[in-house]
Amino acid sequence: MNRTIYILLLSLSASIATAQPVFPVTQAVSAVSPIQEKIFVHTDKDTYLAGEILWFSTYVLDAASKRPLSLSKVAYVEIISSEQRPVFQGKIALDQGHGSGSFQLPYSVRSGNYLLRAYTSWMKNSGPQSFFEKYITIINTLLDYDTSTTINSTLPPAPAAPTTSTTPLTLTTDKTTYGPREKVTLKISGCPAASDLSLSVTLQDSIQALSQDDILSFYNSPAETPSRLRSANLPEYAGLIVSGRVTDLRSSQPAANIGAWLSAPGNYFHLAYAVSDKDGLLTWQMGSLYGEHELVVQTANRTDGNRYRIEILSPYADPALREPLPPFRFPARASRQLLLHSIGAQAANAWQADKRRRFSQPPITDTTAFFGEPDKRYLLDDYTRFGTMEEVMREYVKEVKVRDHNGSFVFNVQSDQANQLFFDTPPLTLMDGVPVSGFNRIIGFDPLKVRKLEVITKRYFLGDTLYNGILSYSTYQGDLAGFPLDSSTYIQEFEGLQPSREFYSPAYATAKDPSGPHRIPDLRNQLFWSPDIHLPAGASQQFTFYTSDMPGRYTAVVQGITTDGRPLKATVSFTTL
User: Fold this and answer.
1) Could you tell me the pTM of the whole model?
2) Which residues contact 266 (CB under 8 A, 6 or more apart)?
3) Where are the alpha helices (DSSP H) in 408-466?
4) Less Cβ around it within 10 Å: N or C end of the chain?
C-alpha cells in the first residue's frame, strides 16, 4: 500500500471519529488504488460429526502482491446449509491478516454437505465470487443416520493434495509408529522467512480423507474478477464497525442527519456516536468488542427520541449460494468408523465438557476510556457511603455543582478551579458507558450500586458535539445494575468478535498413569491443533501431544504464509497401533 493510500485511510479514520460522512473518502481510496483482499481458511479437517469442534485459521492477502494484508481487522466466517441458511457465523479478529476461530457443532445440526465461506467487509464490495468457499460434511449419527442411503462418497472428487512439501518448510516426527496414549514430538523447520502458520494432526480413515484445502493451490489461483466495485462497505481497519438504520416512525422513511449513540456497557465499555446519512444509515466504530453484548442504542436528541426507530444491521453477506451444494449420502462401508467417531465425540462432551469450553481472555489493548485519564476519580468505597446520590455529589464531588430547580436537578462541571468557575451548560453524563438524559435518574439511583465516578473538567468534542466536561459513573459489574433507561432506548443482543477457544489435548505420563484420566475413553481423531504459530526466518519449533486409543494413520499438515508473500505447506504421516 503506497503513501497516498495511508493518507487517505487516515482521513477516513478522522472522518469516522468525528461522525462525518465517510463514503466520499472510501470512494477516493477505491479510485486511487482498488485494494482487493483475498482470504484463505485452513480447517482442521473436512468431515465432522455432530458434537465435535470445527477449528479454522484465516489468512488475508493482497490479491495483487499475495502478501499478508493488514487492512481489515475482522473476518466473517460462516457455514451455510443447502437451504441457503447460515447455521454458524463468527466474527474473527485479524492481526496482520491472520486470525483463528472455532464452531462447536451441536447435536441438533442435520447431516449434510455445507458451504464454509469467509470474507471481510471490504470484500463484500467485490461480490460473493471473491469470497473463500469450501465444502465440509457434517454427519449426525444420533439424529438422522440411515445406512440404507449410503453411497461411496459424500463430496465430488477433488484434486489429490500433495503428499510432500513443495516448499522449504519441513515437518518431522520423532518416530513413525506409536502406541496408544504415547507422546509424539513434532518439529517444524526450514522456515525461509518470518511466517504465520497453522498446524493440524488428524486421523485419516474411511470417514476423513486428507483435507483438500491447500494454500499452495489457493495462492496460485487467479483472483476472481469482481462483479462490481463499490465502496458501500467500509474497510474495518480499526476493528468492528456496527451499522444501523434510523427510520422516521411517522413517515416510515429513512431519516437523515439524526445523531445516535451506540453503547456496549461494561467495566471496559465501548461508546460510539454517528450521524445518519441521506439513506438513514449509521456507522459506529466499536473497535475490539469481544463476546456477547447487549447494545444500547438511542438518539442524541432525547426530546424526539420516540419519533425514530433504530435497528442494527447484520454485517453478514446474503446467504444465497452461487450454486447448489452436492447431494449428501452417508459414507458407505463406514459403520464401524462412524460408531467410533460418534462415541468419541459423545465421550469428549460428557467427560471433558469444561475443557472444551475454555476460552482465552480477550486481549484488552487499552483499559483507558475514550476520554483518556480523568481529571478526578472517586472510588466510592474509599468514602463513607451515603444513602442518596445527591449527598454523594454535594459532599464529595467538588468539581461538580448540583442545583435543584423545583425538583429538576442540573449538574455543572467546574472549568476553573482557581476561580471556582463552572461551565454554564451540562456535561456528557454516562452510566457504564451509556449516555444519560436528565440528571434526575442519577440523583434517584442507589449510590451503593456505584463503584466509581470519573470526572473530566475540560471541554470535549465527541462526534460533532462539544461537551462541557464528562461525568462517567461505573457500577460494580458494568451491567447498569438496574439503572432506568430512557423509553426511546433500543436494546439489542449482539455477538462481537469471537473469543479464542483453547484446544484441549490430554497429557499422559504413561498409558496407565494412575493419576491421569486413563479410565476415560480417549477416542480422539483430532490429536492436535495450533492455529497461531509465528516463526522468525530460519527458526524451528517443536510441539508435543499424545496419541489416543484410536489406531490408524494420522497426518500432520502445516500451512501458512511468509511476511513477504510465499505460501508454505508441509505434511508428515505416522501410525498408531
Assistant:
1) 0.88
2) 293, 432, 433, 478, 479
3) 440-443
4) C
